[in-house]
Every structure is written in C-alpha cells, then in structure tokens.
Amino acid sequence: MATKKKWSAKVTRESHALSLDKGVFGRHSAGAIARSLKRSAERSRARKSSPYRSAMSMLTFYINRGGKGLSASRRRTLEAAKGELRHLFGKQKA
C-alpha cells in the first residue's frame, strides 16, 4: 500500500516533462519562483500543453504535494507565485 501513497514523489523524481532549475520551490521570492518556472516551461520541448499551463500545473502540483506540511508563510509565497505567473504570461484573473 505504501507505493500508492508515494506516487507524487515518483512523479517529482522521474518526470522529465519540465526540467526545473534546482531549488526553484525553495526560493524566497514569489517573482523568482514564477520567472524560473516560466523559463523552464518555455524551454521545454516535452510538454503537452502551453508553457503557461505547464508552469501553473507544476506549481499547483508542488503546493498540493506539500499539503499540510507547508508552513503558512511558504504557502503564501507559493500562492503569490501563481499570481506572478499569471502576470508574466499576461493571463490576468477576470
């Protein structure tokens, strides 16, 4: 049963759909996280959707994987990175 619980760790380790900069999610600035994700998504040739969707999916996946283990300040920074990504890609929330 342990393998079913660890599927997200396997995806993080083995997925090559988006080659991320080392330590991207550990950065302190939402802008730095968003810029790095944007750069990675635009460079990737293995992605199946637009760079925006790929970057946002990776960020959302990381937030969901962190779950309750993320501190409130870390979650705020990561959620703010979503807004930065929207801004960088010109996809303002309606």
Report what the structure shows.
The protein is an all-alpha fold and 94 residues long. The chain has helices at 2-5, 7-14, 30-43, 51-66, 72-88. It has one domain (22-88). 63% of the residues lie in helices and 0% in strands. It is globular, with a radius of gyration of 13 Å.
Quick description:
With 94 residues, the protein is an all-alpha fold. The protein has helices spanning 2-5, 7-14, 30-43, 51-66, 72-88.
Helical coverage, percent range: 55-70%
N-to-C terminal Cα separation, in Å?
A: 42 Å
- From the spread of the alpha carbons, the general shape counts as globular
Topology pattern, helix = H, strand = E = HHHHH
The number of domains is 1
Strand content: under 5%
Detail the poorly predicted runs. Answer: none
Notable traits:
single chain, 94 residues, mainly alpha, 0% strand
